[in-house]
Structure formats: structure tokens, C-alpha cells
Amino acid sequence: MTAPTSVGDLERIERVRLGNLREAARQASRLQERLPDAFRRDRLSGRWSRRQWAHASLFATLGALLVTLVPGFSNAMAGPGHMPSTTMSLHLPPLPLARSRTRAGDSWQLVTVERGETLGSIFEDLDVPATTLHRLLEQPGARSALTRLKPGAEIAFDIPLDGRGRPGDLRGFRYDRGDTERVELALVGDTVVETVIQRPVEVRSTVISGRVGRSLFHSARKLGLSGSNINTLTDEIFKYDIDFNSDVTRDDRFSVVVEQTWREGELIRTGPVQVATFTVKGKLHTGFRFERDGKAEYFTADGRPLKKSFIRMPIPYARLSSKFGSRRHPVLGTVRQHKGVDYAAGTGTPIMAAGDARVQFMGWKGGYGRTVILDHGRGHTTLYAHMSSFAKIRQGQRVAQGTTIGRVGSTGLATGPHLHYEFRVNGVHRNPLQHTMPEPEPLHGIQLAQFRAQTGPALARIRTVENIIYAQVSEAGTGERIASTNAPRTRSGAGHRG
Predict the structure, then answer these.
(1) Three-class SS of residue 302?
(2) Are 223 and 485 in contact (CB under 8 A)?
(3) Which of 6, 81, 229, 470 is 20 to 30 A from 270 in CA distance terms?
């Protein structure tokens, strides 16, 4: 936008130009006054000498430059033109949200729910009355579905435009109820007519295989695995067998079987990892998902749980500050048996349950301060002391391994924030850093037979896919190819599991 030139600016520019011209005229008059003396002809010969001709050429050149530069400088100061320009602001009507957030072509306008938005705010932005919203929410099932909208959800409004392009009254509204149903509500007079449109889905069992490359996360995401799937590989299935910070190289490979849900050619959801293999420096690691007693777990090929019964450190990345055995008590000053280990950590650091257990005790316990005791069954208990606070647990509650049960503190007889951790077997204290932890219960009987029948074909499919992919890689002469293959086994219908 060009700023307008005022009358005062034009007058200033004109004064500068006239001043330059007057200065040029004064210089010319001075030159004329000096020429008679400087350029007098030789009285004897009546002609100019060489020195006089040189002076004449110099002054002529200076005069030409003055004549050329002064007017040009004045014109440059004056700008491109002397005509004043004026800019006027036009007051345009704002673009309605009904047209700015929608697809052109028809009266159905698609709106994607953004973070922080509510259904009421969306209706208000589209100039739809609140009474209309209440009428729609009175429909069976509408309130429960529409009041739990998440960011990214899509809803549509049928708002026709009048002859002048302005939005009219709401004529229809639609939303998705689950993966397989789309509900369309039409406003006809004072009534609301509901139409349910079935949207069939297809569940595909997919084998995804690739190399680690420069980053496992980057390679897996590129193939279509979700962040949750990748965390399952690193933090659940292979957590105890592979150190992903130091063991894995760019040429190691992984393969997973996941169930993907497709609708109308669009991937809408990726399920949990069913089978996973990870080859690290030539050694194959496998994990299979199987539900035992209604709870999903990951097992080895022979039916042994991958998750250990106990984790060694209830606090990740903590420093061992005091070992198991005899020591001088830092507060009492007496030599006594230290029946556990201490982990130094900052106040508020989360403390995890060492294994699946039931909360046996939670409260204040003398010099231990705030304490939690967990009963893991088969005579195994663990104690966690000096907590600053408890987590949202209660006595008698079942907790899973890794659940936060409290936070590090310095309550009781403590010189600083740390966790005092004890491991007991039938009431006898054991060193948790040296004691052989009990093996988790493997599958047996009917469950083992079902597990083998389920996992055998899946592992065979992974091997087939890997043989095809990495045979092609060897023939192509490259070691960094990543491939994804869809298995032919598909299922249709919502909620169907096989």
C-alpha cells in the first residue's frame, strides 16, 4: 500500500529543487567573472596558450556536469511524480465462518473440531441459535456422542445460501456415531428427522517390516506404525532383552503384525501389536500378544511371559546411595542392619510398583515415614518408605507393575530425599540387587495350545514377508530399504474379532 503524499511534502521538494538551480546559477556567474583574467589571449601572438586551453576544457567539463546533475538530482528528490496519491480503506463484510471453514460446492459445510472448542462455540460461530442446538441434543444418543467430541472429529452442517450468498437457517446436521454409523439429522419444521447411514469397515491384518536405519522411530512412523505401537516395542515387548540406546544398529530389522481398520479407502485406526520380531546383530527376538484371564500380555514363542515378575529399580535413572547390609545409621549414629537399599532422587520423583500386587499397607510407619507395602503373592512383599506423598491408590487395591504408587520424599528418619526399598520373601529380607527373582507363570494346558495355534501362522507370515523383502534388497544391492506388506486376510464389519 502506498502512503499518500501531502501538500507540505510537495512544497518542500520544490524548494529543494529551486535551491539547487539557484546554486548552479551562482557558480556559472562566478565562472564568467574569472574567465576574462584566466583566459586572456597572449598579447603578442593574440592566441591562447596550451595551459589556457587546458583550463578552458576543465571548466567546460565542470559546467556540463553541473547542468546534467543538478536537474537530475532535483527530479530524484521530487519522486516519480508530483501528482498526490490517496489511499482509501474499503469496509468489506467479514467472511462468515460457515464459508471460511467449509468445502465449496454444496450446502453441506464440514467443520473439524479444534483443541479447546466446544459444540456450543461451533454453533455460535456459525450463527446457529442455541435453541436449535438443544433440539438436536434431545435426539436419542445425540447428547452422549456430541458432548464427548475430541480434537480432529468432523461434523457437518447443511446451511444453504440465499440469492445474495448469505447463509440461511440450519437445514441439517450430521456426525459419526462410532466407526460404522453416520447419523444425519434433518430439521423439517418443528420436527427433527433422524437417518442412520451404515458405513462398513474393513479390518486388515497387516505385516510391516523394515530396517532401523538412522532412527527406529522415524523408520517405523514412515511405514505407518503409530507412536503407541513403537512404544509397545521398546517399553513393553523387548524392554528386558534389548537396550535400544546401545544394542541396536542401523542394519537391524524389525517386523510387526497389526490390525488396521479401513473405511471407504481411509485408514482410521491401527490396533495393538499382535506379533513382533526384532533381529539385533543376527539374534532374533520375538513377542506374541495373547489374552490370559482377560488380560493382554506378551509372551515368547514357547509361552513364557516377556514381562519379568519384578523390576530391579522402582525409580528409573536413580542413584544407589546405600546398599543392603550392615551400616552406621545416618540419623541415629548406631551400627545396625540395613534391610533394604536406598535410591537418591529429587523430591517428587515418581515411585513405581516393582510388580503386580495388592496394596497391603499405606500410611505412616514410624521411622519409615509415609510407607506403602505391596503383596505380590507367593510370599513376596515389597516396602517403599520416606515418601513425600501417596498416589491415588487405596489399601486393598490391585496395582499393575509400573504403576505410580507415590513420590520420593524425606519423611521419617531421613537426612534427605530418597527411597528406601525392601524386598521380602516369607517375611525374610532379601537383597533386591542380588536375589534371583521368581519367574513369571508360563502358559500351560489349554491356554498354551490356543497360544500356539494363534501364533504359529502369524510367525510364518512374518518369515515369508521378510524372505521376500530382504531377498529383493540383496538383489538390489542396498541395505536400507524399508517395506510394508499387507496380508491378504481381511475382515469386514464393526467390532468383529477373530
Answers:
(1) coil
(2) no
(3) 470
This prediction's pTM = 0.55
Can you tell me the distance from the alpha carbon of 363 to that of 393, in angstroms, rounded to the nearest whole number? 11
Cell of 364: 505412616
407 — pLDDT class (breaks 50, 70, 90): very high
Q: What is the rounded CA–CA span in Å between residue 235 and residue 240?
A: 9
Cell numbers of 376, please?
505380590
Backbone angles phi, psi at 333, to 5 degrees: 80, 5
Helix or strand (DSSP H, E) at 269: strand 266-280
Q: What is the pLDDT of residues 183-192, one digit of tens each?
A: 888 888 888 8
Q: State the total domains in the chain.
A: 3
Nearest to 380 by CA among 452, 428, 442: 428
For the segment 324-364, what is each residue's pLDDT rounded down to a tens digit?
A: 766 666 666 666 778 889 999 999 999 999 999 999 999 99
> Where among 157, 174, 198 does a domain terminate?
198
**What's 118's domain CATH number?**
3.10.450.350
Q: Which domain holds residue 474?
A: 202-307+447-492
Task: Quickly list H helices, 114-180.
Answer: 119-125, 130-137, 142-146
Using a 10 angstrom Cβ sphere, with 0-12 exposed, 13-18 middle and 19 or more buried, the burial of residue 149 is middle
Query: Does any domain span residue 105?
Result: yes
Query: Under a CB-based contact definition with an 8 Å cutoff, are residues 256 and 208 in contact?
Result: yes
Contacts of 166 (CB under 8 A, 6+ apart): 96
What is the spatial distance between Cα 484 and Cα 39, in angstroms, rounded to a whole number? 96
77 occurs within a structural domain: no
| Inside any domain, residue 25 | no
Regarding whether 381 and 453 lie in a shared domain, the answer is no
The whole-angstrom separation of Cα 161 and Cα 99 is 10
